[in-house]
């Protein structure tokens, strides 16, 4: 791949001119100098040469030894280059006084320090100690190497050591400097001033050096010969400094992965020699691409991904039209906020090989001029808002190897014309998570593609109803994803005859049927997903290379193969739910020591839960719900310290929860509903499972009080204790359940797996992807008593509250309007009394209400939400309630007729009345008296009037 000059290519002419590379492996006619030979042999004695590469270090002429270079005239050793050795460097090496080339890179010196005597090699011009596992600080004696032209200390040590680099300022002849991956945080305040004292520097590499200070100004740039500058992967937090634009000879500028922010300066257009510009992964470079960027006619690579650039790219591309020959080969603008349509002018990029525009907000269709990018090899347009038809000119890209059009709302038809000239195509990806299909492949059954795909990923594209015949000659495929593709067929024999070695096979969400062939071959750690089809027969068993199997929602029957754990020992994920499997859970599953996900739910499995769980230490999802399992929970499940999702609902399990479960401290969802568990709900649930999001023990035989320790579960937002035998009062600490007060976001969906049925709006609703939005508290069908604690009213994001079928008393709290998000409220079948609070009318989200069979009295409110509750059954069984929708009318003679409610209404009416009186008095007083105070003439007339009235009365 053509690319910008690397460090070695830029320095090569320099080294040739300096004579450094003129160190030929030629011996002096009389052999090497004896003292130097002895020094080399002693140096060898300190090394560990496991590969025997120094076996040639024998005989009198050391100039013939591997890695040794001598001067042709004097026989003196002037160069030493060895790699792949261990041991240490001993002092006799200092005898090589004429060394001008020393390369000890890529060795293992086992943490020994860099010898300070290296600083005494006065003739040294090339020094490379990179990747050699030295220890300690860089000796400042290296600053004595005044003739040094090239210094490479990249990753000389793996120790976390902060180095000082002031000594570098003495290397006045230096042309090449590489300190990559060294911790220079100690030099953060002066590194630039130090480097600025190297007037002949051509290449500088300081990536990943923990530098935090990038000065915005530099009084005088002394290193103006610089052509390559790499400051990537540091921790700068500034705008792009202006002094960079004085380095007009820059060819390569890499500032990626810092914290640079602000606009991309227009002055960057002055760097006309630039061939590579990388400002990617800074996250905060913003605004539009300046048109002046198009003046960089020599630019070959432009990388600006992962920033906050916005606007369209038309001006930038139009700027390039001024170049007689646009040399751009790589354009990476992914993960920004770019908008607009791709302009037709994109067709001028004749040399473009890599176009990366994913994760932006581009709109419209692909311009037809895309077909003019005759050198294009990789095209990434995924995760935008592009739509319309895909142009047939795409089929002209004969050099294209990778095409990714995923996550765009394309529509229209793909035919063989779109693909006919893509002879180099290896990867084709059109992945859309939404199940809506708007793109159709209509390819002739007898068409033979000119390409040999390796990676095919088509999701939510229509390819059916037959298994696509145009894949018949694709013998190099290793990834085949035809998910939600409208295929109603069997897996054809010709597909099996391709004899593919598969990495991923995903044909989920189709209507494929028949038995799954066992003859498919797989690479190591491969994935199979056949979910949501009509495959039948027994569970298929493939090669031991398969690590992930998803066979849920099919028609598989019979027992789980007893030897599944022996035949497929690398399994990490196994989901065979929603089938008709029967029999017991095979013990061989205990051999799957790397298993992380085991989902066996919704089958007909029976027998006891095995006790092999201490053999599967990494399991974090275990779902055996909706089967016919019986017995108790084995204590060995408590060994699963990484377990997050534990679902056993709808079985025939009984007994108490094992104490060992308290060791499952990572638990986020515990669902054991619809079983026969008994005893008290353990306190340790609240003590140990602090990450718990969902606790569901519905329909069991638990008894006793609701433990107050439950209130410490600050992340809990679904609590279902219904249909048990709990007694006592609702603990007042329920107000501490902070999970019912915090708004979760779509990012939290990553913490949820599987599905959950929640009683809401009077019916059972199933939630999966939106489970993080549900905030439900269900304590119904128990033997709870007492009043609703006022602390419960602080759970202001509560979405569903069900306290029905208990023995609760007291009034409905006036502060119930604090539950502003409430959609479902069921207080039926209790002994609540008093009026229905008027404050309930402000619950504008309330969609389901049941207050039946209590002792409520007074008038039913008739405003806001109550106008929608027109079913009498909502209020039936409350003999003292009156008003619509009940037939009983409210009269003044009715017992308790509206007494409390009228008082409440009077209280609400009295407030505006008193406010009106006060406001009237205030306005009247100041209109009259205020005027008299301000205006003297009115004041005199007013008092004159009262004098006249007094005189008349006197007469």
What is the percentage of strand-forming residues? 15-25%
Number of H/I helices: 9
Radius of gyration: 40 Å
Overall strand count: 59
Rough outline: elongated
Distance between the termini: 120 Å
Helix content: 10-25%
Overall mean pLDDT stands at 88
Explain this structure:
- The structure is a single chain.
- It is built from nine helices and 59 strands.
- The strands form seven sheets. The chain has a 32-stranded mixed sheet, covered by helices on one side.
- Helix 8 packs across helix 9.
- The protein is an alpha/beta fold and 955 residues long.
What layout of secondary structure does this protein have?
Blueprint (H helix, E strand, L loop, with lengths): L6 H12 L15 H12 L1 E2 L19 E3 L6 E5 L4 E2 L13 E3 L22 E3 L21 E3 L23 E3 L12 H5 L7 E3 L22 E3 L21 E3 L6 E3 L12 E3 L5 E4 L13 E3 L4 E4 L2 H7 L9 E3 L4 E2 L15 E3 L6 E2 L13 E3 L4 E2 L15 E3 L7 E3 L12 E5 L7 E3 L13 E5 L19 E5 L9 H5 L3 E6 L6 E3 L5 E9 L4 E4 L8 E5 L4 E5 L4 H4 L5 E3 L4 E4 L13 E3 L4 E5 L12 E3 L4 E4 L13 E3 L4 E4 L13 E3 L4 E5 L3 H5 L5 E3 L4 E5 L12 E3 L4 E4 L27 E5 L2 E5 L8 E3 L4 E4 L13 E3 L4 E5 L12 E3 L4 E4 L13 E3 L4 E5 L20 E3 L16 H36 L1 H19 L1
Parallel strand pairs: 3-5, 5-6, 6-7, 7-8, 8-9, 9-10, 10-11, 11-13, 12-14, 13-15, 14-16, 15-17, 16-18, 17-19, 19-21, 20-22, 21-23, 23-25, 24-26, 25-27, 27-28, 28-29, 29-31, 30-32, 31-33, 32-34, 33-35, 34-36, 35-37, 36-38, 37-39, 38-40, 39-41, 40-42, 41-43, 42-44, 43-45, 44-46, 45-47, 46-48, ...
Antiparallel strand pairs: 1-4, 2-3, 49-50
Helix pairs in contact: 8-9
């Amino acid at each position: 791949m053509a690319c910008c000059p690397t460090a070695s290519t830029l320095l090569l002419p320099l080294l040739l001119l300096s004579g450094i590379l003129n160190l030929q492996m030629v011996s002096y006619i009389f052999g090497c100098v004896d003292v130097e030979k002895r020094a080399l042999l002693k140096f060898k004695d300190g090394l560990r040469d496991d590969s025997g590469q120094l076996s040639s270090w024998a005989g009198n002429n050391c100039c013939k030894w591997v890695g040794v270079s001598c001067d042709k005239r004097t026989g003196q050793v002037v160069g030493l280059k060895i790699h792949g050795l261990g041991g240490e460097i001993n002092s006799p090496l200092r005898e090589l006084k004429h060394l001008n080339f020393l390369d000890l890179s890529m060795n293992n010196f086992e943490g020994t320090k860099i010898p300070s005597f290296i600083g005494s090699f006065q003739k040294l011009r090339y020094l490379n100690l990179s990747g050699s596992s030295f220890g300690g600080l860089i000796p400042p004696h290296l600053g004595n190497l005044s003739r040094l032209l090239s210094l490479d200390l990249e990753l000389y040590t793996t120790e976390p050591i902060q180095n000082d680099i002031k000594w570098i300022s003495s290397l006045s002849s230096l042309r090449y400097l590489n300190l990559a991956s060294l911790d220079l945080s100690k030099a953060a305040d002066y590194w630039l001033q130090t480097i600025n004292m190297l007037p002949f520097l051509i290449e500088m590499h300081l990536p990943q050096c923990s530098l935090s200070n990038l000065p915005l100004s530099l009084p005088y740039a002394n290193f103006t010969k610089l052509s390559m500058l790499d400051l990537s992967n540091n921790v700068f937090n500034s705008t792009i400094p202006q002094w960079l634009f004085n380095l007009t000879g820059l060819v390569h500028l890499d500032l990626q992965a810092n914290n640079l922010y602000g606009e991309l300066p227009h002055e960057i257009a002055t760097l006309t020699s630039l061939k590579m510009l990388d400002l990617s992964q800074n996250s905060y470079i913003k605004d539009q691409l300046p048109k002046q960027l198009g003046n960089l006619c020599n630019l070959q690579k432009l990388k600006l991904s992962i920033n906050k650039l916005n606007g369209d790219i038309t001006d930038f591309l139009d700027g390039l039209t001024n170049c007689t020959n646009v040399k751009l080969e790589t354009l990476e603008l992914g993960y920004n906020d770019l908008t607009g349509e791709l302009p037709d002018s994109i067709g001028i990029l004749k040399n473009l090989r890599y176009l990366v525009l994913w994760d932006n907000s581009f709109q419209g269709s692909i311009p037809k001029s895309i077909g003019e990018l005759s050198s294009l090899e990789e095209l990434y347009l995924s995760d935008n808002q592009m739509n319309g038809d895909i142009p047939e000119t795409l089929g002209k890209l004969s050099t294209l190897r990778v095409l990714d059009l995923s996550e765009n709302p394309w529509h229209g038809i793909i035919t063989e014309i779109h693909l006919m000239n893509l002879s180099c195509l290896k990867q084709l990806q059109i992945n859309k998570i939404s199940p809506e299909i708007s793109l159709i492949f209509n390819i002739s059954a007898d068409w033979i593609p000119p390409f040999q795909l390796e990676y095919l990923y088509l999701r939510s594209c229509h390819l059916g109803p037959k298994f696509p015949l145009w894949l018949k000659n694709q013998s190099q495929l290793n990834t085949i994803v035809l998910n939600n593709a409208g295929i109603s067929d069997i897996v054809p024999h010709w597909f099996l005859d391709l004899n593919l070695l598969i990495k991923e096979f995903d044909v989920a969400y189709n209507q494929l049927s028949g038995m799954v062939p066992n003859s498919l071959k797989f690479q190591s750690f491969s994935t199979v997903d056949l979910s949501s089809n009509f495959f039948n027969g027994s569970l298929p068993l493939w090669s031991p290379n398969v690590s992930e199997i998803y066979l849920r929602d099919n028609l598989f029957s019979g027992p789980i193969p007893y030897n599944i754990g022996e035949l497929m020992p690398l399994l990490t994920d196994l989901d065979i739910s929603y089938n008709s499997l029967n029999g017991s859970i095979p013990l061989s599953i205990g051999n799957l020591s790397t298993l992380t996900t085991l989902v066996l739910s919704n089958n007909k499995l029976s027998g006891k839960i095995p006790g092999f769980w201490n053999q599967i230490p990494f399991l974090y999802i275990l779902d055996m719900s909706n089967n016919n399992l019986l017995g108790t929970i084995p204590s060995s499940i408590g060994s699963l310290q990484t377990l997050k999702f534990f679902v056993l609902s709808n079985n025939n399990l009984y007994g108490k929860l094992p104490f060992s479960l308290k060791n499952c401290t990572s638990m986020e969802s515990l669902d054991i509903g619809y079983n026969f568990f008994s005893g008290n709900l353990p306190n340790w649930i609240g003590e140990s499972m602090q990450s718990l999001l969902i606790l569901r023990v519905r329909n069991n035989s638990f008894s006793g009080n609701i433990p107050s320790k439950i209130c410490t579960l600050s992340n809990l937002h679904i609590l279902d204790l219904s249909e048990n035998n709990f007694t006592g009062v609702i603990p007042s600490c329920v107000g501490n359940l902070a999970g019912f007060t915090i708004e979760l976001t779509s990012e939290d969906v990553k913490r949820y797996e599987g599905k959950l049925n929640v009683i809401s709006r009077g019916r059972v609703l199933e939630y999966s992807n939106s489970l993080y939005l549900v905030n439900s508290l269900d304590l119904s069908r128990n033997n709870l008593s007492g009043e609703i604690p006022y602390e419960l009213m602080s759970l202001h994001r509560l979405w569903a509250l069900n306290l029905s079928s208990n023995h609760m008393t007291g009034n409905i709290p006036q502060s119930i309007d604090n539950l502003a998000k409430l959609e479902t409220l069921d207080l039926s079948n209790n002994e609540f009394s008093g009026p229905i609070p008027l404050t309930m009318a402000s619950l504008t989200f309330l969609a389901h209400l049941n207050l039946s069979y209590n002792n409520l009295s007074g008038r039913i409110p008739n405003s806001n939400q109550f106008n929608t509750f027109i079913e009498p059954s909502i209020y039936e069984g409350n003999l003292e309630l009156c008003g619509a929708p009940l037939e009983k009318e409210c009269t003044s003679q009715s017992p308790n007729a509206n007494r409390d409610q009228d008082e409440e209404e009077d209280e609400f009416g009295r407030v505006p009345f008193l406010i009106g009186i006060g406001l009237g008095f205030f306005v009247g007083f100041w209109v009259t008296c205020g005027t008299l105070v301000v205006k003297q003439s009115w004041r005199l007339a007013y008092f004159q009037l009262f004098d006249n009235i007094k005189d008349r009365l006197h007469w």
